[in-house]
């Protein structure tokens, strides 16, 4: 599933994320610098914050309560399209999605 990650400095990386992997896992395995993922994906650190491109944000399953709570703790500005990338699982219907990374994660 091709996902485009855009770093705060504008550089783009396209990653073929295996289905079922989280966007955070794939970012870490591919050296995407704008995602830290300190807690390993258990929705407990908010250092995997990303901004989902507007056209995709509404297609994602809604954030669960624990994700919404953790989004209160993001280091960068929280926006309506803010999500935790460890809680977004790659699936075929997300092919082509674009996520932008905030300038700070912690
Ligand atoms: Fe910690 Fe996503 S990796 S909340």
Short characterization:
The chain has 106 residues and is an alpha+beta fold. Helix content is 17%, strand content 20%. Strands 2-1-5-3-4 form a 5-stranded mixed β-sheet.
Describe the structure.
InterPro entries: 2Fe-2S_ferredoxin-like_sf, 2Fe-2S_ferredoxin-type, Adrenodoxin-like, Adrenodoxin_Fe-S_BS, Beta-grasp_dom_sf. Keywords: 2Fe-2S, Iron, Iron-sulfur, Metal-binding. Belongs to the adrenodoxin/putidaredoxin family. Pfam families: Fer2 (PF00111). Residues 1-105 form the 2Fe-2S ferredoxin-type domain. This protein is of the alpha+beta class. It has a single domain (2-100), classed as Beta-grasp domain (Ubiquitin-like (UB roll), Roll). Helix content is 17%, strand content 20%. It has 3 helices and 5 strands, in the order ββαβααββ. It has helices at residues 23-29, 54-57, 65-71, and strands at residues 2-6, 12-16, 49-52, 82-84, 97-100. Strand 1 (2-6) and strand 2 form a beta hairpin. It starts with a strand and ends in a 6-residue tail after the last strand. Bound molecules: FE2/S2 (inorganic) cluster. FE2/S2 (inorganic) cluster binds next to loops.
Structural key phrases:
106 residues; alpha+beta; Ubiquitin-like (UB roll); five-stranded mixed beta sheet; 3 helices; binds FE2/S2 (inorganic) cluster
Question: What low-confidence regions span 5 or more consecutive residues with pLDDT below 50?
Answer: none
Shape: globular
Oligomer: single chain
The helix/strand order is EEHEHHEE
Q: With helices defined by DSSP (H or I, 4 residues minimum), what is the helix count?
A: 3
Ligand species: FE2/S2 (inorganic) cluster
> What composes the largest sheet?
5 strands, mixed
CATH architecture: Roll
CATH topology: Ubiquitin-like (UB roll)
Strand line-up in the sheet with most strands: 2-1-5-3-4
Q: Let me know the CATH homologous superfamily.
A: Beta-grasp domain
| Termini Cα gap | 28 Å
Number of strands: 5
- CATH class, named Alpha Beta
